[in-house]
Amino acid sequence: MIQELKDNYGHLFEEGLLNEINQVGTFKEIPEGFKMMEIGQYVRAMPLLVSGAIKILREDGDGDELLLYFLEKGDTCAMTLTCCLGQTKSEIRAIAETDAKLIMIPIEKMEEWSEKYKSWRSFVFESYHNRLNEMLETIDSIAFLKMDERLLKYLLEKSRISNDKTIHNTHQQIAYELHTSRVVVSRLLKKLETLGKIELHRNSIILKDI
Amino acid sequence: MIQELKDNYGHLFEEGLLNEINQVGTFKEIPEGFKMMEIGQYVRAMPLLVSGAIKILREDGDGDELLLYFLEKGDTCAMTLTCCLGQTKSEIRAIAETDAKLIMIPIEKMEEWSEKYKSWRSFVFESYHNRLNEMLETIDSIAFLKMDERLLKYLLEKSRISNDKTIHNTHQQIAYELHTSRVVVSRLLKKLETLGKIELHRNSIILKDI
DNA sequence: CATTGGCAGTAACATTGGTTACAGATTTGG
DNA sequence: CCAAATCTGTAACCAATGTTACTGCCAATG
Question: Which architecture does CATH list for A2-143?
């Protein structure tokens, strides 16, 4: 494990902390689609993402979903942080967007390291900061953008995350994550294709000219 | 100052920390409508709210506003926290919703107290936690509710914050904060009045039967 | 290779919310 | 007290999005 830890967090954490993480952290590999966290569930450990991407989703009472943001390498789940500390239930769902590797930290260490290591405090604060900004981004999108702009933004983000010009998704899946209907997504995608921005295939969309 | 500090934070912070706050914090009273923070501005101090309410607003490039949430007594501004630590610009606007009193903490103390006082760490983490949850609430409203439900929720929140069944606002102001148009607000308010939920007057709305 | 199920395209329609325009009421300021 | 500004109500219309329904296409499977 020490190698992936060094590669991703070596520049962030001091030596002592890296050693502690190495000792108490457990390495974990999860496959694409794996549900890491469900709404209402309690959290027992804090994940440090070393590779891959995790999507964070919100759901209302009627089962309507909405994609909030993605976590990437070097990120941790701020929601989990607060859940750990407050012993509250998760407000969100987390699903592996790609295959991913992580290091799980037992929650008892959270408080201990916060006192002991400045770099840990900085990391935690920084994580919160990033997550709040991601949430603002999300709010901007929902509140200020039209569905076609949101869709395009979504496709670009998806492509960036997976480092692939081709997005492997059905229209229905996209509709869930944007909280709209399949028909609307099909309609707007067709318009984007007409504009030459994308190419549509069964189960996949290729980004062009962007 | 010591009295308002004790009343609001006495149960949260240990004695030593309270003393330090008392020494380095400066007391401040601000009137309703006072703009405490503008988008793009740098942050020099961290506010602890001891009375009143602050509204936090987001704006897009075209000047369209959106109310994110309110801060109340005992709260602090998590956005400010991250700005202090990261030395980044504010992403939001903060305006006093009512007359308010606060204690301003110089940002240098942030890191120092985070190391020294467990209760300070807890407070900061808790603040982040609360703010993330407020943001989730906001996202839920925008994403999952129709405008009439959002409007009603807004009125209730507004009433709760000011502890007053009467909301002193024009339809135009409400429209700004919900990011819609005056005509739409008037239309929906009229519907709510017909349903017997509110009573409309010039410059004010009275909540009934809720 | 025939059947089944999932996926995408499209039309027709309904609903929500945004826009424009104007009128009447009330307040404010000179 | 009069003129101007502000606030609200309302109608008519438009644009964006959501819904229903049906079609053909493709892929997997026995």
Answer: Sandwich (2.60)
The architecture that CATH gives domain A147-207 is: Orthogonal Bundle (1.10)
* Closest C-alpha among B161, B172, B159, B163 to residue B70: B161
What pTM was estimated for this model as a whole? 0.93
Could you report how far apart the first and last alpha carbons of chain B are, in Å? 38
pLDDT per position as a tens digit, A50-96: 999 999 999 988 888 999 999 999 999 888 777 666 678 899 999 99
Q: Do A136 and B64 touch (CB under 8 A)?
A: no
| Å from the A192 CA to the C5 C1' | 28
Q: Per-domain residue ranges for chain B?
A: 2-143, 147-207
Q: Which bases of strand C have any atom within 7 Å of the beta carbon of a protein residue? A: 6-12, 16-21, 26-27
Residue B97 CA, distance from chain mean position? 8
Contact yes or no for B144 and A91 at CB 8 A:
no
Closest residue by C-alpha to C1' distance, nucleotide D21? A183
Low-confidence ranges of chain B (pLDDT < 70): 1, 83-86, 210
Q: Which residue of A has its CA nearest to B128?
A: A128
Of A125 and A72, the structure prediction assigns the larger pLDDT to A72
